[in-house]
Specification:
Length: about 140
């Protein structure tokens, strides 16, 4: 069995903005983006949803984030998970944590713990939870 790191995310109408933010701040590459109005499912979406994203893919390092805007009546805020980020540079860990925290909410400030030089968690402005764990010395 081969397991490739892929993370699927749902958004409430802001997938394109989220992926653009991740592209900019995480040096990602958006490889695919399909709008509701361009898809065979266009008839299933409200007219104001035609420019929202049905499916998108961004590659960040060796990880793929897949996402899309679910129909308004189907959206549920993400809960019960976080995307764990383990970088090999403390400065980059701090930079990315603070970028995601801007206009988001910090659950635990980035700080030293007994197991890590930096650990913290944040929910970004798009409602996606992230946890940072920098262990290197």
């Amino acid at each position: 069995m081969s397991l490739s790191p892929r993370i699927g995310l749902i958004f409430n109408g802001n997938c394109e903005a989220a992926f653009e933010f991740y592209r900019q701040h995480m040096s990602g590459k958006i490889e695919f983006m399909l709008r509701w109005g361009e898809s065979p499912m266009a008839k299933d979406a409200p007219p104001q949803w035609k420019d929202k994203i049905l499916h998108a893919r961004i590659v960040i390092g060796d990880t793929e984030l897949l996402g899309g805007d679910v129909l308004p009546e189907s959206y549920e805020a993400p809960q019960g998970f976080s995307i764990l980020v383990g970088l090999d540079d403390i400065t980059e860990t701090e930079r990315l944590f603070h970028a995601l925290a801007e206009s988001g909410s910090v659950r635990m400030a980035l700080q030293e713990t007994f197991w890590a030089r930096r650990f913290g968690s944040v929910v970004d402005q798009f409602g996606i939870p992230w946890t940072f764990n920098f262990e290197s010395s």
